[in-house]
C-alpha cells in the first residue's frame, strides 16, 4: 500500500473550514487506500508563544475532531507528535543539511516572523519546515524499484514546505545512500485555498483571520449561520464564479461545490436570477449539515478522556515502531556509533 502522512497543529480551539476542505477531508478518504499516519503536531505548536494548559486541551480537542470526522484509529495511525521523540531527532539531522538561506526563503516563515517581530521570532519558528520534513520522512517506505509512494495531503500553503522536504530527502540520499522516498504533495484542485469570509482575497487562517472571517468546525449553529449570511459578497447580485471580480462569491461557490459535490456550473445554474440571499442561506445549511454531526461526536469523544488517551497511546505505539526503525537506519548512515545491546 502507498503511505500517507499528514499533520495538523493544535493551535486553535477548533479546526476551520479551510483545514477541513484543504486537508482533513482527504485524510479520511485516503485511509481506505493507504497505510495512513495522521499526527497532531504539538511540537510545531510551540514555535509561537503558547500557554501550556491551553496547548494540552487543544491537543486533545484536535485528536477528538480527527476521530469525529471519520479518521478511524483501526485503519489509520493517529498520534501526537511529542509521543514519538524521533521527530525531533530526525529534525536535528535534517537541520544540519539545510542551508540557512534556504530556510530563510520559506514564505510562511517570512509572513509569520514579520508579524511576530524579531524579538518574538524564535529559532524554532525558523526551523519549523525542517521539523515538518522530519515528520514526513520518518514514515518513508524503504526506497527501491517497487517502493510504495509517500503522499502528503495538504492545502496550497504547504506546497513550499513539501518542496523543501523533497529537496532534503534527495540531499540525504545523495550524501548518505538511498534512505528516503521523495514525498508527493496531494493538494486538492478546487479547495486548496479557502479564503476569509470577510476578506476574500486572504487565506482563511487561525492566526490571521478575524472571528467573523473563519468558520469553525465546532462552532454553534446559530453563529455559524450568521457568519455565512454576513460573508462579504461583491457588487452586483449574480452568483457567478469570477476569481478576479467576485472573490467573495467565488470562495462561497468553491465551498458549496466541495461540500455538496456539485459542480460550480450546476450551482451557477441553480441560483441564476435568485440573488445572494437564497444562495447563502442554502450554503449555511450545507455547512451546518456537514459540521453538526462532527461537533456532536467531538463533544462525546471528549467526555471520555481516558478512552481518547488510550487511542492516542495505541497510535503512538504504531507510529514509534516505524519511526524507530527509520531512525536506526539514519543514525547508522550518518555515522553515529551504535549503542550496542
Ligand atoms: P496547519 O495546522 O496550519 O493546517 C492544517 C492543514 O490545513 C490546510 N489549510 C488550508 N487549506 C485550504 N484553505 C485554507 N484556508 C487552509 N488553511 C489551512 C493546511 O494546508 C494544512 O494541510 N505545517 C502544517 C502542519 C504540519 C504538517 C506536517 C503537514 C506539520 N508537519 C507534515 C503535513 C505533513 C500546518 O501548518 O498545518
UniProtKB/TrEMBL annotation:
Residues reported in the UniProt entry to bind L-tryptophan: 135
GO terms assigned for molecular function: ATP binding; tryptophan-tRNA ligase activity
GO biological process: tryptophanyl-tRNA aminoacylation
Cell compartment(s), UniProt: Cytoplasm
Pfam family, one: tRNA-synt_1b
Gene3D superfamilies, per the entry: HUPs, Tyrosyl-Transfer RNA Synthetase
Catalytic reactions of this protein: tRNA(Trp) + L-tryptophan + ATP = L-tryptophyl-tRNA(Trp) + AMP + diphosphate + H(+)
EC number: 6.1.1.2
InterPro entries to which the protein is assigned, alphabetical: aa-tRNA-synth_I_CS (IPR001412), aa-tRNA-synth_Ic (IPR002305), Rossmann-like_a/b/a_fold (IPR014729), Trp-tRNA-ligase (IPR002306), Trp-tRNA-ligase_bac-type (IPR024109), Trp-tRNA_synthetase (IPR050203)
GO cellular component, one term: cytosol
PROSITE patterns (alphabetical): AA_TRNA_LIGASE_I (PS00178)
Coiled-coil region(s): none
Chain positions recorded as ATP binding sites: 9-11, 18-19, 155-157, 194, 203-207
Superkingdom classification of source: Bacteria
Extent of motif 'KMSKS' region: 203-207
Record's keyword terms, sorted: Aminoacyl-tRNA synthetase, ATP-binding, Cytoplasm, Ligase, Nucleotide-binding, Protein biosynthesis
Complex formation: Homodimer.
Function: Catalyzes the attachment of tryptophan to tRNA(Trp).
Family, similarity comment: Belongs to the class-I aminoacyl-tRNA synthetase family.
UniProt protein name: Tryptophan--tRNA ligase
Organism of derivation: Actinomadura litoris
Phylogenetic placement of the source organism: Bacteria, Bacillati, Actinomycetota, Actinomycetes, Streptosporangiales
Gene behind the chain: trpS
Amino acid at each position: 500500500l502507498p503511505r500517507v502522512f499528514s499533520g495538523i497543529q493544535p493551535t486553535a480551539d477548533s479546526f476551520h473550514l479551510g483545514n477541513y476542505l484543504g486537508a482533513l477531508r482527504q485524510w479520511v478518504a485516503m485511509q481506505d487506500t493507504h497505510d495512513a499516519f495522521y499526527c497532531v503536531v504539538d511540537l510545531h505548536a510551540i514555535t509561537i508563544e503558547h500557554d501550556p494548559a491551553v496547548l494540552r486541551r487543544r491537543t486533545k480537542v484536535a485528536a477528538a475532531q480527527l476521530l469525529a470526522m471519520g479518521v478511524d484509529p483501526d485503519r489509520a495511525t493517529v498520534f501526537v507528535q511529542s509521543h514519538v521523540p524521533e521527530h525531533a531527532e530526525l529534525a536535528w539531522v535534517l537541520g544540519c543539511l539545510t542551508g540557512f538561506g534556504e530556510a530563510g526563503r520559506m514564505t510562511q516563515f517570512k509572513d509569520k516572523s514579520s508579524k511576530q517581530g524579531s524579538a518574538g521570532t524564535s529559532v524554532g519558528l525558523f526551523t519549523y519546515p525542517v521539523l515538518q520534513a522530519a515528520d514526513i520522512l520518518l514514515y518513508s517506505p524503504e526506497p527501491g524499484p517497487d517502493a510504495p509512494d509517500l503522499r502528503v495531503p495538504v492545502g496550497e500553503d504547504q506546497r513550499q514546505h513539501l518542496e523543501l522536504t523533497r529537496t532534503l530527502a534527495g540531499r540525504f540520499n545523495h550524501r548518505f545512500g538511498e534512505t528516503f522516498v521523495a514525498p508527493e504533495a496531494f493538494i486538492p484542485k478546487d479547495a486548496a485555498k479557502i479564503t476569509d469570509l470577510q476578506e476574500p482575497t486572504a487565506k482563511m487562517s487561525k492566526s490571521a483571520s478575524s472571528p467573523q472571517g473563519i468558520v469553525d468546525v465546532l462552532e454553534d449553529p446559530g453563529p455559524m449561520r450568521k457568519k455565512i449570511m454576513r460573508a462579504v459578497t461583491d457588487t452586483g447580485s449574480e452568483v457567478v464564479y469570477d476569481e478576479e471580480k467576485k472573490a467573495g462569491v467565488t470562495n462561497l461557490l468553491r465551498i458549496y461545490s466541495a461540500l455538496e459535490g456539485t459542480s460550480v456550473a450546476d450551482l451557477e445554474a441553480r441560483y441564476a436570477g435568485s440573488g445572494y440571499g437564497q444562495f447563502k442561506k442554502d450554503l449555511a445549511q450545507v455547512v451546518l449539515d456537514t459540521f453538526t454531526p462532527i461537533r456532536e461526536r467531538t463533544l462525546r469523544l471528549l467526555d471520555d478522556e481516558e478512552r481518547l488517551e488510550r487511542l492516542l497511546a495505541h497510535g503512538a505505539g504504531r507510529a514509534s515502531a516505524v519511526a524507530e526503525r527509520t531512525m536506526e537506519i539514519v543514525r547508522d548512515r550518518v555515522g553515529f556509533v551504535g549503542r550496542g545491546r
